[in-house]
Each structure stands twice: as structure tokens, then as C-alpha cells.
Amino acid sequence: MDWGMKNRLSRLIRPDDGRAVWLAIDHGYFLGPLSKLEEPGKTVKPLLPFTDAIMLTRGVLRNCISADIKVPIILRVSGGNSIAGPALSNEGIHTCMEDAIRLNASAVAFSIYVGTEHEHQTLLSLGQLVNEGQRYGIPVLAVTAVGKELEKRDARYLGLCCRIAAELGAQVVKTYYCEDFAKVARSCPVPLVIAGGPKLKTELDALNLAHDAVRDGAKGVDMGRNIWQSGNAVGMIKAVNSIVHENKPVKEAAKFLKG
Length: 259
Ligand code: R5P
Description:
The protein has 259 residues and is of the alpha/beta class. 40% of the residues lie in helices and 15% in strands. Ribose-5-phosphate is lined by residues 24, 26-27, 55, 143, 195-197, 222-226.
């Protein structure tokens, strides 16, 4: 691996413990102004000190985030779909590598839709993005997206998606936690992080998810709604941080929610 690629990855996954807490605020690219993300700059500001990277689009980055930010950027470069359209899987690359470099991105993120009518286009586009990433030393984060079909999230399907993403060259893969997640992690040769998915019933549920994921082989989280839609978003990200980076048990991490 070239120095630039290694350097960028080391900014995203902490070299001291090999773990990562990323904050995802890219949802607007197909969901519009989600609750608590109407003003992304305001939402994210108090959370930044406890975040290893933020994942977002170039529009939100340029318009809502101060350019003196110290936190590395994971730039969402795929889209072209919306919750109001006919197929969430119909994604392509909308932001070029040149703009990602201009924005000083530490990685670019792209969703694949395995098993859908758009499987072929999303997998080929992932390969194309990896080719460009290799040229400039920019890591690619592949997201194993399920669209509206949340029930797809089982070890067999996610294991297939993660392995394909790694085989096509993604340097990091983002997926969902599931039963038998250890199998998914074992068969994916690159680091895995997990998304939180839609807001769970309680904060403790989300902390358990983060805990079980790292216990079973994830390198960390790239979480959104379960952090910033919480009534105590700062407490949540501190708690998740203590689980991922300090191996704190959920009961102890939950103390951050009382502050
Ligand atoms: C898809 O909407 C995006 O890639 C999100 O960044 C991803 O799903 C993580 O966010 P959440 O934890 O809210 O699922």
C-alpha cells in the first residue's frame, strides 16, 4: 500500500487500537432533511470532539462545516436516487475523485446493492472508484446498502456483500450488525465498521449493538441516527467512544447518558 493511502487510513482508524468511531451525517443525499439533521452543522458541532471522522456529502461539507475542522472527512460520492423515487438501488458516482481531493477527503464512500436490479452497475462503479482511489491514494469505503429491505440484514447476505466489496478492492467496508456477525467479519479481509440503522427503541439497544459488533470483529462504527437522533447525542457518542476505544462494558458506557 502506498504511503498516501496508508496515511489516510491511519487518520480514520486509530493506529493505537485499530478502532474507529465515525459519525455519519450523509443521509440527506436520498432522505432529505431528516429529523435532527435539518441543520447538519449545528447537529454535528458538539459531537466532533468525540469523532474520528465524519461521513457526509460535498454539499453539506461546503455549506455547513467550517474549513478549519480537524476531523477527517469521508466523502459520500454515490447517489442519484431518492426515497421518493422508484428504486433506492439505482445509484451511481456523482462526485468525482478530483473534487474529493480538492475537499481534502480522507476517504470516499460508495454504496453497493448486491442482489438488486442495479447490482451490476453499483459493483462496476465501485471497481472504477477503487481504480481512481488507487491512482491518488484515496481509500474507498464500500457500504453494503439494503435500501428499504432491512430484513435482508442476515449473515449470509451481508457476508456475500462484504466479501464482494473487499474482492473488488474497497479498503474498508461498512455493513450492518447481524446474528452470526463473527462469520461476516472473519470472511471479509478488510476492516469492517457497522452502521446503526434506523433509531432503535432505546439508547441502551444502540450501545449493545456497538458493543456486540466490536466484540464480534468490527473495527468500529459509522453511526448516525442512533447518535444524533438521541435526546442526549453528546452522551451517546461519548458512550459509543468508550465502548469502541476503551472496551467499556455497556453498563459502564451508559453512565455517559446520565450526564
Ligand atoms: C445511509 O443512509 C448512510 O450511508 C448512512 O451513513 C448509514 O446508514 C449510517 O447511518 P445510520 O447509523 O443512521 O444507519
